[in-house]
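Protein modeling request. Please complete all fields; requests missing the sequence field cannot be processed.
Requester role: graduate student
Desired output: 3D structure, token encoding
Chains: 1
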Amino acid sequence: MRISIVVLLVFLSLTVLHAQWEPAQRLSENGKAQPGTARSVSSSFGGMVHVVWSDTRDVNSVIDYKRSTDYGKTWEDEIRFADTESNAENPGVSIAGVMNPVVHVVWDDDRDGNKEIYYKRSSDWGITWSEDIPITADGFLQEPPNLSFCRADVQAVWIDHRSGKTEIWGSHSTDCGVTWSPAISISQPEHAWAGFATIVHVDSTYHVVWTARIDLSNPPFYSIYYRSTNDLGLTWNPIRRIATHETAYPPVVSCAAMKENVHLTWGIPGQGLFYRRSTSSGFTWEGNVCLKDAADVYDPCIAISGKYVHVVWYEKVGKTAYIYYMRNLTGNPIGPPE
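Delivered output (338 residues):
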């Protein structure tokens, strides 16, 4: 009887958690949204939610930005970035703090003949934007970047091929993105492959999550790894493995954090959209919740504002592709009231 009661309580708690998510909204309209693995949604004070994605309606791909000022209920018209003859892809967005008007965007761009990492920022909640600033310019192939921000410190992580393998590397700026430190390796070099990194911060602590394939055995198993730094990236804590999945498609993982709560979401084509939460700064994790079952979900991203949890993802429906949005009004219980 005790086991039955425990199982019932766990089932009911997961059912309630799932029921608190509202129906999905479609943000893009032309069916030409491009998948990206970077952090594509971020939220800030006063109901601000910022979303970026890559759009291929023209010959080349460009970056589109859209924001909401009422917690995701309604959305303003999109703003276009990196509208050049190059291909700009995999944008990521981050805010400087819940009451700070600075918004940061990073992406990869081949305007110089090789994919490099570019950065720009807004100082007025996303109304106006700076010029494009290159973070890398070394001729190596760099792909899907992500970034996070704590006061004047900006941390960026990306997929890097300079060692001859696919690894996670990072760099940080101490002057709000004007100049950047030399890049360092963050993932385990002995792994066969690593990718899809995302980074968030709580005060001076940065949380990094990525997907890795330990070896090339079949069937393929992909693991989700977590690593943190408590001193703005000067030193890094040991790597922790938090989940392993058998799938032919490596899951793209997104992360959001507030105090000791860390939220993850990931998608697997044909299997759906998943969510998991830690209340111990990533040391232990609650069970998985399937937010959308048996869907062709790609590249989801998660953000939190107060008690709200926001998720954005790219989904294929037949021959079209759209951006969807879902939120949980009580998914972050330690957050302040909105």
